[in-house]
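Posting this for the archive.
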Amino acid sequence: MQIYESAEDYLESILIIQEKKGSVHSIDIAEEKHFSKASVSVAMKKLRENGYISMEKNGELTLLPPGRAIAEKIYERHKVLTAFFRSIGVDDETAAKDACKVEHDLSEVTFEKLKNYISNTEYSL
């Protein structure tokens, strides 16, 4: 199934917020991404309908296995790319922003090469 970059970003955000706070609600995503609550609500509905997340009665969001797999993949790419950009002298903030732009489009071959390179530097994960 084709998943869009925006959906990958939402899933990654859920994972990151969950790691920070333990639980995730739509409002957390809206605040983190600086999006309206309405747009986040629409996105969460689509992710639920496609089997990527579930929502408890109290509004808590949970990544289902397909959603978690995508979120972990994108987050790993983000961390590796950020480390790579830092290793070539890019400041932390720019490195993280640029990683967000690249993480969705990079081929598996190139990503694996970068991952191997980073594992041998001081910037390793």
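The first helix runs from residue 5 to 21. The chain has two domains: 5-69, 76-119.
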